Each structure stands twice: as structure tokens, then as C-alpha cells.
Amino acid sequence: DVLDDTAILILLALGQMLVIVTRCIDLSVAANVALSGMMVAQLEQAHPSLPIPILMIFGMLAGSVLGAVNGLLVWRVRVPSIVATLGTMAIFRGIVYLISAGRWINSDKLSPQFQQAIRDTWLGLSMLSWLAIAGVASIALLLRFTDAGRRLYLAGSNPTAAAYVGVQVGRSQCNAFILSGMLAGLCGYLWVARFAVAHTDVAAGFELQVIAACVIGGVSIRGGSGTVTGVLLGCVFLGVVRNALPLVGIS
């Protein structure tokens, strides 16, 4: 149950970790979830016969584009990441309002298979949990066994030295934003399917929990340090606290 409740947080925190490792930060991740989720919901509403994998891929592509906007602002325009993503956070929220005209898409306008897919179970775990596990495994492999993963750490730990050995720091930062955006786009679908609603304020303020999970998990806000295991434990810790406090009567 805790894994189900924290699956979306885990996926978003993994993407945020990649960004923080490169000495950046993404404050627009929750707004990305809201915009990608609204786009997926509108596509599903217009074409209810589309397979769920197509909707997931569409959400991931939409999120990747939004992440690329952040990455290019940081890389090419050289806007500090906290400023760039603070601006795009407001812009993405505004776009959600524009494309939805302020209207909600509720469960009665979403097909049953759209809402049920992530609840289907296999080996005792829901597909939502399996997606979180797949995300953990994929990011762990990326960081441990690929040149691109090692470049992320090098770009964050010592940008000057990274530049001397041929690592394009800006490109690595942009790639981190794109990956973070891709995971946020996937979470856009997961959020709408799990809670059966899409609206402007989806995941409002959730970026703070995502960043908190990373910091609790040992990701250095100065970049260059952080592990997938730590992020996973940080997310589970927040999930346990969030579930335990109401049970003992604490708001």
C-alpha cells in the first residue's frame, strides 16, 4: 500500500535527482504533471479507443518537450535553473487553464480502461507499483553503467574539470531536464488515472515533496552526489509518515 501511495513521488523524485545532481533544480515538475495530465486526459476524452500504452507514450513525449524547454533555457540562454523553472512553472499552469478553459475532466468523462489500467495487479503488486520499480531499475542502470550517467555526476561535482575533459556541462544539464520531464509526463497520466480527475491545480505544491524526498535521501543540493537507493528510501520515509500520522490522529 505504501509503495502504491508513493509510486508517483518515487518517479518524480528520480527525475528531480538527475537534475539536482547536475547542480540545477526543477521547480516546474508538478506543473509539468498537471499540463501533461490534462493533455493526456483530453486526448483520451477525444479518442477513448486509444490503447493505454499510446497514452503513456504521448504523456512522456509531452513531458519531455516541457523538460527540454527548461533545459534549453538553462543551457543555451544561461538562465539560472531556479529562475527558469520558477517561470515555466507559472507558464505551464497557465497553459493548463487555457487549454481546459478552467473546466475539470472528471471520472465520468474518462473511459473505465483509462482508470483501471494502473490498478491491475501482477504478482500481488499494481501496475502503478511496477512502473515505479521499473523507473528505479532504469535510472539505477543509467547512472551506474552508462557514460551519460557518469557525465551527470561529473557535470555537478566539478563543472570546470568536466569541461576540461570534454564533458559538455550544459548538454548534460539539458538531458537531465528532459529525462525529468519525461518522467513527469508519465506521472501526468498516472495522476489523472489514479485520482480520476484532471484540472489546473493537479499536484499543486507537490514539487516541494519531490525535492524534500531527494534531500532526505541524501542527494546533495550542491550537485555531484546522490543515489537511487537514497531517493527511494526518502520517498518511502515520506510515504510512511504521511500514512502513519492520520492513523494516530495527527493532521
Structural summary, described in words:
- Helix 6 crosses helix 7 and helix 7 crosses helix 9.
- It contains 11 helices and 4 strands.
Strand portion = under 5%
Q: How many strands?
A: 4
Order of strands side by side in the largest beta sheet? 1-4
Query: What number is the mean pLDDT?
Result: 91
Radius of gyration: 18 Å
Principal-axis shape equals globular
For the sheet with most strands, the description reads: 2 strands, antiparallel
Structural class: mainly alpha
Q: Give, in order, the helices and strands.
A: HHHHEHEEHHHHEHH
Low-pLDDT parts are none
Helix content: over 70%
Q: What count of helical segments does DSSP give?
A: 11
Spatial separation of the terminal alpha carbons: 20 Å
List keywords for this structure.
mainly alpha; two-stranded antiparallel ribbon; 11 helices
Layout of SSEs?
Layout: H1 2-21, H2 29-46, H3 52-75, H4 81-100, E1 105-106, H5 112-116, E2 121-122, E3 125-126, H6 127-145, H7 147-157, H8 159-164, H9 169-195, E4 197-198, H10 206-216, H11 228-247
Antiparallel strand pairs: 1-4, 2-3
Helix pairs in contact: 1-6, 1-7, 1-9, 1-10, 1-11, 2-3, 2-4, 2-9, 3-4, 3-9, 6-7, 7-9, 10-11
Summarize the structure.
72% of the residues lie in helices and 3% in strands.
